[in-house]
Design brief:
With about 675 residues, the protein is α+β, with helices and mostly antiparallel strands. It folds into four domains: about 300 residues, no CATH class; about 100 residues, PAS domain (Beta-Lactamase, 2-Layer Sandwich), CATH 3.30.450; about 80 residues, Helix Hairpins (Orthogonal Bundle); about 150 residues, Histidine kinase-like ATPase, C-terminal domain (Heat Shock Protein 90, 2-Layer Sandwich), CATH 3.30.565. It is built from 22 helices and twelve strands. The strands form three sheets. Strands 2-1-5-4-3 form a five-stranded antiparallel sheet. It has a five-stranded mixed sheet with strand order 7-9-10-12-11, covered by helices on one side. A hairpin with a 4-residue loop joins β1 and β2. α6 packs across α10, α8 runs parallel beside α10 and α17 packs antiparallel against α18. The two termini are about 75 Å apart.
């Protein structure tokens, strides 16, 4: 209920507002018509028809949807003025009304056609459309209808009536339309004519009316008390108003000059008030006022355009300055050293990290070449810069050592990218340097550690295996040559010693293999996995037959890798599938392949004991076992070695399993292409 009441109130307000506008239109029309009548020359020669400018401005300013309202108001205004105030015959009233409405509709249609969506009189092109279409073309139809009406009603020759009617409309439109547009914008609080700024400043408001008063005073003196043609003396004040207030000054100034001039001239004062025929006086007045109005509007539009371009230029300059500050701020937040060089090796821009790295201020570096900043050999750097600029191909991620101005040598990772010449006089190169000195030191330490580890592996291979071989040999010697002299319990101890020595030897071998795979380099070749699997199955043929195992394979792809390491990888996985099977179960192994995006996936599935999901990450760690050694012998390094092999090949190994449901291992290789 409340919402309906609010909607009814809004509709009621809209209706009252329309009624107010309707009445205001009629009132303004009649006031301007009466003012035009009071400015008529002796003999009823009307020099200006002010309602023409008012009606055209209202129609052109509003949308076509509201033209019906203003059309009715115009018809009613014409009937009231001509039929009741002027007491014209109905035929004459109808003819005058038709002439005025047709002129307004034609002019508004032309303006909205050529200036869709805007009518601000702030462009020279708009002034041209307004002058030609609104002022000069639209009154032709009105003049023709009006002169024909006078011809049929009173017998007035059309060639005498038409010029007076036509130019009266021209002057009325030129003088009143701009003022009406300013006042409408003023009333609506819009800033398109700078009315909001004018009203908002008391100083500007007072300044405007001071100039209007000055212009009115000068115009009265010129057109009432001076009998020589010095009308041009109004120009300085008019120029002053236009320069200061643009369209507002032009519109109000033209209106004041027109009213003062026509008032004085119609009463017979001034240079055009004496000894001149009414027709000549009318034409001269109309030409003068039209010229003043056009010149004021053109000057106003030119000034607005100039000031608008100046403001845009200033705004662009501020935006550019803000953009430069933001760009510099972004550059300064980058920890790497960034700078831009031209083809002459001058550093045109850099960030604070680069300046601090060189031990200098940004201002001390910008605009200087690297030779000026730090004399020394720069041949290779310059060659790289010129090559990037010439070819347009970036150089990314190469490492080099540089000497700073302080003499310190640092290692950097260098990225050089070409910058096109768009917006600049010549192309250049963007250089990004990342200090990797600490990384280099760590790599050197790591290399030294690897060398120490390799040396340790060699020593361990010799010094650990030699005692183990001795222990194993002596124990076997005791067992074989002194078995009849040793008690049964002693022979059991000898067997355990041999087993421990063998297990220790295997563990040392696995550790050495794990170390070799982790640190060693290998050559990548295209490897056919079908051949690798066939060789591994051939090596394990005895175990497969012993356990009555079933192995099914499908066609496997070619991957990029080390043949020996891939052979060891598949051997470890097949051995586990054959080993970790419940008693009485025949092992079943299936090998297949598929693709995953740009990767190759090789799947090995079995029906073994399975792996608890909570242990699936732990099985790839060294020395991790899930079963007792007595039940399933081994060192616990097989899957750790397999995982490291996949890492060295740029892939990964995945496991999917559950206790009692076997295990599925997926080997994910990068595509060899």
């Amino acid at each position: 209920m409340k919402m309906k009441w609010i909607e009814l109130m809004k509709k009621s307000e809209t209706r009252w507002m329309l009624l107010f506008k309707f009445v205001a239109y009629i009132a303004c029309y009649l006031v301007l018509a009466l003012l035009s009548r009071s400015l008529s020359f002796p003999g009823n020669f009307a020099a200006v028809w002010l309602p023409a400018g008012f009606a055209l401005a209202v129609f052109a300013y509003t949308s076509k949807k509201s033209w019906w309202l203003w059309g009715i108001a115009s018809i009613l205004s014409g009937v009231i003025y001509n039929g009741y105030i002027q007491d014209k015959e109905p035929v004459v009233t109808f003819g005058f009304m038709l002439a005025n409405v047709s002129r307004t509709l034609l002019g508004a249609t032309i303006l909205q056609w050529r200036l869709p969506g805007r009518f601000r009189l702030d462009q020279p092109s708009e002034i041209a459309v307004f002058t030609i279409g609104g002022c000069l073309i639209s009154p032709i139809l009105s003049g023709a209808i009006g002169s024909l009406t006078l011809l049929f009603a009173y017998g007035n020759p059309w060639y005498e009536s038409f010029p007076s009617w036509y130019f009266g409309n021209v002057v009325g439109i030129m003088v009143v339309s701009p003022l009406t547009l300013v006042l409408i914008g003023w009333a609506n609080g819009r800033n398109q004519f700078r009315c909001k700024d004018l009203v908002g400043s008391r100083c500007n408001f007072a300044y405007l009316f001071l100039l209007l008063g000055l212009l009115a005073g000068i115009s009265i003196v010129i057109f009432r008390f001076i009998s020589v043609p010095v009308s041009f003396l109004v120009a300085p004040v008019m120029l002053w108003m236009v320069v200061r207030f643009e369209i507002v000054g032009a519109a109000m100034g033209s209106f004041v000059v027109a009213i003062v001039m026509l008032t004085c001239t119609s009463q017979g004062y001034g240079a055009m008030g004496e000894d001149i025929s009414n027709s000549t006086r009318t034409i001269v007045s109309q030409v003068f006022l039209t010229t003043v109005g056009v010149c004021a509007l053109v000057l106003s539009a030119a000034l607005q355009r100039s000031r608008r371009l100046t403001r845009r230029s200033q705004q662009t300059g501020r935006r550019l300055a803000n953009l430069q500050r933001e760009t510099q701020l972004m550059l300064d937040t980058i920890p790497s050293m960034v700078f831009y060089k031209d083809r002459n090796n001058r550093i045109l821009r850099l960030n604070r990290s680069a300046a601090a790295w060189m031990g200098m201020l940004i201002e001390e570096i910008q605009g200087k070449s690297t030779e000026e900043i730090h004399p020394g050999p720069h041949g290779q750097y310059l060659y790289d810069d010129q090559e990037v600029i010439r070819t347009g191909v970036a150089k990314i991620g190469y490492e080099e050592s540089v000497v700073l101005p302080s003499g310190e040598r640092r290692w950097v990772q260098t990225d050089k990218m070409p910058l096109p010449s768009a917006g600049r006089k010549e192309p250049g190169v963007l250089v990004v340097l990342t200090d990797i000195t600490e990384r280099k030191l760590i790599e050197e330490e790591l290399e030294k550690s690897n060398q120490d580890l390799e040396q340790f592996a060699v020593i361990a291979s010799h010094d650990l295996k030699e005692p183990l071989r001795a222990v194993n040999g002596y124990c076997r010697f005791l067992k074989e040559d002194f078995a009849d002299q040793l008690p049964t319990e002693a022979l059991d101890f000898v067997d355990k010693a041999i087993e421990g020595a063998d297990r220790m030897t295997q563990m040392v071998n696995d550790l050495l293999e794990y170390s070799r795979i982790s640190r060693g380099n290998f050559e990548l070749n295209l490897v056919d996995l079908n051949l690798i699997v066939a060789e591994v199955l051939k090596d394990l043929d005895g175990t497969i037959k012993l356990k009555s195992a079933s192995v099914k394979t499908t066609a496997l792809p070619v991957v990029s890798g080390s043949e020996s390491q891939l052979r060891q990888l598949f051997q470890n996985l097949f051995i586990n599938s054959l080993k970790f099977v419940a008693d009485g179960i025949q092992p079943q192994i299936e090998v297949s392949s598929s693709t995953r995006g740009r990767c190759i996936v090789v799947t090995i599935s079995d029906n073994g004991l399975g792996i608890d999901p909570k242990d699936q990450k732990r099985i790839f760690q060294i020395f991790q076992r899930l079963h007792r050694r007595a039940d399933y012998p081994g060192t616990g390094l097989g899957l750790a070695i397999s995982d490291r092999i996949m890492q060295r090949h740029g892939g990964q190994i995945e496991v999917e399993s559950a206790l009692g449901n076997g295990a599925t291992f997926r080997l994910v290789f990068p595509s060899p292409s």
